[in-house]
């Protein structure tokens, strides 16, 4: 246990020393929200479905963006790099198993993603008066679930990539469709009904709807939670099946 804690602390320090990762996970989503809010029409009332403001819809979107950056952009090259350099293979001969390093990476990136969500909520509240989630328990539960989804998706990218550079390329290609389903380009709630139904079948599309419902004081629809859970289990199973230590 003490060895695993030591690995966790070491990985946390290493991530904190990566300014690019820290910026894209913690700062970029909040900065994007701040810039989006500068558009006057986005702050005007009754410009989005349900009579709310567009900026209100973009808070969950930028929360999800932080999860995407942590899970798909930062985690895969780190794991693939450890395997490529033989670090995981060498660790298998020590009392600290490679699984401890993988678990530490999941915890560190998951914590960074959730911290990014908190920063976004604070920025939205302070700068543009966006109300905090009316159902914080549902909001937090949804965040934890979709964070797991993002992390296992990143683990799958690392599992299928031979090198760190290759994982970065794959993650970059995946970023654009994933960002679309999260509502970065157009909030899911503002999409045409037919398109929205398709997007809601993806983990981040379902998460966007679930966060929106929790923000309004309700509980996420069972179908949205089920979709995220199924994606998490499937992606996690495939990544575990194909991941290699060397």
Task: Spell out the blueprint of helices and strands.
Blueprint: H1 2-16, H2 19-36, H3 40-43, H4 54-84, H5 87-91, H6 98-128, H7 136-160, H8 164-182, H9 193-199, H10 203-215, H11 222-242
Protein name: Transport permease protein
GO biological process, one term: response to antibiotic
Keywords: Antibiotic resistance, Cell membrane, Membrane, Transmembrane, Transmembrane helix, Transport
Give a short summary of the structure.
With 246 residues, this protein is mostly helical. The protein contains eleven helices and no strands. The protein has one domain (2-242).
How would you characterize the overall build of this protein?
Helices cover 77% and strands 0% of the residues. With 246 residues, the chain is mainly α. It has one domain. Helix 2 packs parallel to helix 6. The protein is globular and about 60 Å long. It starts with a helix and ends with a helix. The mean pLDDT is 89. It is a multi-pass membrane protein.
| CA distance, first residue to last residue | 24 Å
Counted beta strands? 0
Determine Rg (CA atoms, Å): 18 Å
Structural class by helix and strand composition: mainly alpha
Order of helices and strands: HHHHHHHHHHH
What characteristic shape results from the CA principal axes? globular
Q: What are the low-pLDDT stretches, counting only 5+ consecutive residues below 50?
A: none
Keywords:
77% helix; mainly alpha; 246 residues
């Amino acid at each position: 246990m003490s060895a695993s804690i030591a690995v966790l602390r070491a990985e946390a320090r290493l991530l904190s020393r990566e300014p690019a990762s820290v910026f894209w996970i913690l700062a970029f989503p909040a900065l994007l929200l701040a810039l989006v809010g500068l558009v006057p029409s986005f702050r005007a009332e009754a410009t989005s479905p349900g009579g709310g403001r567009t900026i209100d819809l973009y808070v969950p979107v930028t929360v999800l963006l932080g999860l995407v950056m942590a899970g798909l952009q930062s985690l895969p090259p780190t794991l693939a790099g450890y395997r490529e350099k033989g670090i995981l293979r060498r660790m298998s001969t020590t009392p600290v198993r490679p699984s401890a390093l993988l678990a530490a990476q999941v915890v560190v990136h998951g914590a960074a993603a959730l911290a990014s969500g908190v920063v976004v909520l604070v920025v939205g509240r302070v700068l543009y008066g966006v109300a905090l989630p009316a159902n914080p328990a549902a909001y937090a539960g949804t965040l934890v679930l979709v964070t797991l989804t993002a992390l296992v998706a990143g683990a799958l990218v690392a599992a299928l990539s031979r090198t760190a550079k290759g994982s970065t390329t794959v993650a970059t290609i995946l970023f654009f469709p994933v960002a679309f389903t999260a509502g970065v380009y157009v909030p899911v709630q503002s999409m045409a009904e037919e398109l929205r139904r398709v997007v809601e079948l993806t983990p981040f599309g379902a998460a966007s709807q679930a966060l929106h419902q929790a923000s309004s004081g309700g509980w996420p629809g069972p179908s949205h939670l089920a979709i995220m859970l199924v994606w998490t289990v499937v992606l996690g199973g495939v990544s575990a099946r194909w991941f290699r230590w060397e």
